[in-house]
Amino acid sequence: MQVKVGQESLVGSEYDKLRQFNEVWEGRRLFTACIEFMLWYELAENVENGRGLPESEKSYWAMVDAIRPRITFYATGVDGQRRKLKKDSFDLFPHTLRLTEPNNIAGRNMITMLQGTEDDESDVFLQGYLWECCFQRFGLRIEEVMNDPEAFVQRCVQVVAGIKFKSGIGGFSMNYEDVYINSNIHLCDPIVGRFPGVNVINPWRYRDLDGVPTVNWLTLVSTADLARLGGWDAVAAQVKAPIVMHRLPHGALLQAGPRPLLGDVNEQERLDTYHEVGRLLAPVRSTTEVQSKLGGGRLEATRWMHRFFRPQA
């Protein structure tokens, strides 16, 4: 299979070197290469009139629209049979948002659709989580995004349009359930060692960190962090092509080049634009250790999380 990216032709097997690390158990994909966009935000900052999260609902529907045409099924039952997606499954998230009092809220995965089995290519997913610190994320098949990366960027802009976010990233990623990977963190080791452009930390781990915890192809910068950097004009004056700075109602989205990169060390693929974004954002880098055992413990995981804030060797 070939897909066109600008004037380039990319062969599907180009990304099989990342997909070789996919993990499947009993026909269900538990660890899957994709291109993902995630953001995290404070619940209290996005509540209107003490009830509901209207902007989060709009964000959710923008994510739904991104994956809707690709959904082939919702889940696999205990009998191994696929269950067709029900319309009210989509409606669960906004219904929860409208009826939940912020001071009574309990942690809940509002809607999670982890798509794909061993014998198909449905690598799409959508997840939202409500708590004091929330996150939302969605992902698409690698080739689909690489075929039109600008369309993916615009979709991400729509997703965050009204959210007062803390930060967020988009790019190559491994989609998984946090509980699963927490017990199998060793699965990340070969990816971390070879593909620095691939995120392997779940948004659950990023959601309550201060500042900008990490950088990727797409990186969200909040209004507060822009102010700490001197404001929009001060940051924009330092941005040089191919980096693009997208203005948002509550901050900015920094895009490190026209498309995401793996940074394959075996191919000596450099990530200079990622490191340049990291340089720009270093003054607002998160100072909190991430609660992850990646690489051996919190110190090692935090160092990996901060990899693009350091100059590239």
From TrEMBL:
Species annotation: Pseudaquabacterium terrae
Protein name: DUF3396 domain-containing protein
InterPro entries: TsiV
Pfam families with a match to the protein in the record: TsiV
